[in-house]
Amino acid sequence: VAAAMAAERALAMVTCTAPVNIAVIKYWGKRDTDLILPINSSLSVTLHQDQLKTTTTAAASRDFTEDRLWLNGKEADVGHPRVQACLREVRRLARKRRGGSEDTATLSLSYKIHVASENNFPTAAGLASSAAGYACLVSALARLYGVEDELSEVARRGSGSACRSMLGGFVQWQRGERPDGTDSLALQVAPEMHWPELRVLVLVVSGEKKPVGSTAGMQTSVETSPLLKHRAEVVVPERLAQMMRHIRERDFEAFGQLAMRDSNQFHATCLDTFPPIFYLTDLSRHIIALAHRYNAHHGHTKVPAGLPGCHSTVALPQVPMSPPIPPQVAYTFDAGPNAVIFALADTVAEFVEVVRRSFPPATNGDQFVRGLPVGSAVLSQELVAAVVTEPVPGAVQYILHTQPGPGPQLVDDPSQHLLGADGLPWSRV
Amino acid sequence: VAAAMAAERALAMVTCTAPVNIAVIKYWGKRDTDLILPINSSLSVTLHQDQLKTTTTAAASRDFTEDRLWLNGKEADVGHPRVQACLREVRRLARKRRGGSEDTATLSLSYKIHVASENNFPTAAGLASSAAGYACLVSALARLYGVEDELSEVARRGSGSACRSMLGGFVQWQRGERPDGTDSLALQVAPEMHWPELRVLVLVVSGEKKPVGSTAGMQTSVETSPLLKHRAEVVVPERLAQMMRHIRERDFEAFGQLAMRDSNQFHATCLDTFPPIFYLTDLSRHIIALAHRYNAHHGHTKVPAGLPGCHSTVALPQVPMSPPIPPQVAYTFDAGPNAVIFALADTVAEFVEVVRRSFPPATNGDQFVRGLPVGSAVLSQELVAAVVTEPVPGAVQYILHTQPGPGPQLVDDPSQHLLGADGLPWSRV
Asked: How many beta-carbon contacts under 8 Å exist across A and B?
């Protein structure tokens, strides 16, 4: 009897962490806005949680009188339809698992829940915080209720790209065919250790301002852009197969070039939307041009072939026009202002120095590079002359150096819970 | 004998003017780079020469020892392949016309020529000066040699869009099917007086700097952009038929919306090019957002329907997201930084005032509006509050107010020749 009473827990609490992911084949547009089913498959790299993560504590108690939610320490609307969809789906899976019978040894599904969630990076800074957030919410709730099913389908109901944050390494979100979305799932293309040399640099150009969410924008694109339709139907299926091959073969040049092309095409479909949607700014283009100049310089020094003239417009930095050059670095931009750069480990120190010279830190600059250590590099005069043109001081706030990482993790240490024994966030003194 | 000697002219001189044109269904990409055959048909509005024109004098003389060319008073390379192509084609047509026999009453085709050409607007300021320039060259040469054939095919050899400047009003450049280009011609969709209320505002944002030509860019697009291929094959044929109908019906709302969409799609295909090509700047997007806010405001005041929220990114002006609103003004951007705005006459005064308030002139501003007269307008407080957000002083140099106009003209007044009796440009004291 004592054991049964103890098992009928009064308070259960679980803490999980979940990663951010960066798409290299982009997701833009839903075929079902309620179930969050995409018009095309997408593919992403899960970033390491040592640098970027969401932490979420979920608690259930018979003493809680209502569901409550705190985001980064502030209470938020727990009634948000997407939060409710995740909660409903996890509970449905728990009920199914229990075969309909309420087992006293498991947590009661009728208890109210408290959830607290925190990012270790600026929220909504264009760093796909909703993906990590919903992946973390679903992971914590599933652990709380003892659900071990395929959970990417549930995370997808919170935010499309959240399903990709349910796995580590290289992840495909399969479009699926079924109208009920049961085949629109995340699949791991390769685990995080598959490509140990791959590095990711996040160039944070705005950590303060809040970009507007992509939900409204992508539906307008679906409704108005003929190019998006073609992209989803014809271009992406080909590119997805190519990208999976490049990742399996660890072919950085092919991977990088396709990532850049796909980022550009995503932004092209935003521009083809009516009214048009712009995420790239003049600064984004400075970074794009810098990457192309850097690649051109290295292509130049390695391949003794003439580079044809340059092509650019009045006010914008020059993008070298040439046959595609094997890239050393590859950029990708999501629906926000930050740039994400892929590179191999042996390129990082030099490219970081190029970025530092191109966007000299406004203040002392000792926090300019964060995350994984970056070695020092001396730039050749030729490199500086060819690549570092027209520096823009202060334009890049800082660089975050990271790498591919694993999927959501359970936090065993109870001292890491974001909620106290009273089920409320720790007071921050 | 005296008559025959007089007819065997020692010096012949002709002066013509030719117009600029602005595409509303854009041309981007050649299927034959030598013959300048496009991958899709395009459609443009010929602008009035009272505001924007090229003037060209062509002279031939038995005393000239070499072909020579002056552009805006400076001698230029007459051996440029495209200049030579135009010269060769006009002479070929002249020879064909004369049936192979050299008639002493006509100008000898063996005489060397002198050509002088001038724009009444800043060269290469993104105002399609090459289109007006080659149209004018071909018109003057054709007059000089007495050729009256279909000349758009010849002008096309100078610059693709030049063929559209060979006609007034609304002009289609038909893609054509034949490999020899004989069916890739300009056709008048409607004459300039067909739509007397239509006005054109050129917002000159850079009259000084020289944008790079589009030739290299468009070929890279043809080679690398899957979206451009789809646009040329599928989207443009539909849009061309729609645009011709909108013009015939003088349906400004449909015309304007399609012009905006097609401009955006052209720039989208530039972005889908690899490496990407950018013509739109942050300032272009300010202007685009301004036009959408202006249209939304008027759609709002006329149609009592709720406007859903706004969608934008961090640093960029907001573009209202809403079902397409009947536009009052429509923007289009070519491969340069200037914006071209279409509006009906009764909208011009108010919109010009909106532009003046949004981009307050840096200096005294008395030359801010040029071209056709613009009435004064008082803006309502509601309009200012809704539309004039975050002014950018000095960003727009000036506004040129013009309208559709006729094709190339012969200048009868000999005092207007750009060359003196000695066949050299007038010395400018």
From this structure: 166
